[in-house]
């Protein structure tokens, strides 16, 4: 199913590990360059700005090809052409992604334009053919994006797949009318929990390392969906939008206390779990969830003017940062504010050659230390004195 050479994928993992060792101080930048020259790798870009530039170039190329096809189609205008033209554009995207992949383009930027363009055109084509049937559109977009991820290991396609699966759940519940719309938050919460544990178990069982990033994206998406499913602001605004209910003065939505408690307890649980497991992604999600929880309260209960609230919030965050640094600065293990002790370590410098040779099969040239004793001449096999005074 994967179009890429698995040997190159494994080499890419080795190069990424080498960069991690370089940042930690185990090996030098020159040795990483030697490794990259010794191992065949993909044509890729690690710089996000460079990759974005190639993505824009790919978009122009993709639009140019589609524009030429559209010009040929407009020469004989008929209604059937407009119904199939987006399918043709989707095929162009797939062919372009295949061609670039066979030329070893991976995480480069050019292939992103063709892959995402193909998924987008599938959605637009189905919207035209099905008269905007959201459930069918979401289903086929989910299938297409999953195929794109499996074949090209395209991480954005995995994110599109997760969003499409959520859309399938939502639009499927809409088919049940008022009952489906009412139970939507609880069903979405259960779906997020089930999908989270499924992806977590799948990540533990997967032995092919190049799948881990995509599964990690799906796992992180479940955490975000779980929080948003029962966030008070989201539930209240969706109730007004979907059910058309008018909330009278002094009244609120059903299960108000549950949604309020959920809005603040879940970010706290995320934060505690992130600190306990040292999970950086979960830590960032918890920070964003806390910020959105504060925004939720201010959206309905504006106690202070915005400038005073921001000032007090900044003072509060400064206080947390200051006392956290004071508390953690002397810790030797676990959470600590001290720099990593493996950096600038003499033990690393001494073990450098061994690590490189054993991990990557590279034999760096070692220059022996010159002897402090300066021997004399000697015309025979010895290293003694010469024959003259």
Describe this structure in words.
This protein is mostly helical and 389 residues long. It is 71% helix and 0% strand. The chain has helices at residues 6-24, 29-38, 48-74, 79-102, 110-129, 134-152, 155-174, 178-182, 184-205, 212-229, 232-243, 256-277, 280-300, 306-328, 346-360. The radius of gyration is 29 Å and the shape is globular. The model is unreliable at 341-360, 362-368 and 379-383 (pLDDT under 50).
Fold blueprint:
Layout: H1 6-24, H2 29-38, H3 48-74, H4 79-102, H5 110-129, H6 134-152, H7 155-174, H8 178-182, H9 184-205, H10 212-229, H11 232-243, H12 256-277, H13 280-300, H14 306-328, H15 346-360
Helix pairs in contact: 1-2, 3-4, 3-5, 4-5, 5-6, 6-7, 7-10, 9-10, 10-13, 12-13
């Amino acid at each position: 199913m994967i179009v890429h050479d698995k040997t190159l994928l494994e080499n890419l993992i080795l190069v990424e590990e080498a960069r991690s060792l370089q940042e930690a101080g185990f090996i030098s930048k020159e040795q990483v360059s030697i490794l990259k020259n010794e191992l065949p790798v993909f044509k890729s870009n690690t710089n996000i700005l460079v990759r974005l530039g190639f993505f824009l170039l790919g978009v122009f190329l993709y639009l140019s090809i589609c524009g030429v096809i559209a010009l040929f189609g407009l020469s004989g205008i008929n209604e059937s052409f407009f119904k199939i033209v987006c399918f043709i554009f989707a095929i162009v995207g797939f062919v372009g992604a295949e061609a670039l992949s066979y030329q070893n383009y991976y995480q480069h930027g050019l292939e992103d334009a063709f892959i995402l363009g193909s998924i987008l055109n599938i959605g637009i084509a189905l919207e035209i053919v099905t008269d905007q049937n959201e459930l069918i559109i979401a289903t086929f977009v989910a299938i297409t994006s999953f195929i794109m991820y499996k074949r090209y290991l395209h991480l954005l396609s995995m994110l599109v797949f997760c969003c499409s699966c959520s859309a399938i759940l939502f639009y499927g519940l809409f088919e049940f009318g008022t009952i489906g719309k009412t139970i939507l938050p609880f069903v979405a919460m259960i779906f997020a929990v089930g999908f989270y544990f499924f992806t977590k178990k799948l990540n533990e069982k997967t032995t092919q390392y190049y799948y881990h990033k995509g599964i990690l994206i799906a796992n992180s998406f479940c955490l975000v969906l779980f929080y948003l499913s029962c966030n008070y602001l989201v539930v209240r605004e969706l109730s007004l939008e979907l059910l058309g209910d008018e909330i009278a003065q002094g009244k609120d939505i059903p299960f108000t206390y549950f949604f309020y408690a959920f809005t603040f307890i879940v970010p706290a649980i995320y934060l505690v779990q992130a600190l306990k497991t040292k999970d950086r992604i979960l830590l960032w999600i918890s920070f964003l969830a806390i910020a959105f929880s504060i925004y939720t309260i201010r959206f309905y209960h504006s106690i202070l003017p915005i400038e005073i609230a921001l000032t007090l919030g900044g003072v509060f965050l400064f206080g947390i940062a200051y006392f956290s640094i004071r508390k953690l600065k002397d810790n030797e293990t676990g959470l600590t504010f001290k720099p990593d002790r493996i950096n600038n370590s003499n033990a690393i410098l001494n073990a450098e050659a061994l690590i490189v040779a054993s991990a990557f099969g590279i034999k760096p040239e070692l220059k022996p230390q010159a002897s402090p004793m300066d021997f004399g001449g000697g015309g025979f096999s010895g290293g003694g004195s010469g024959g003259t005074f």
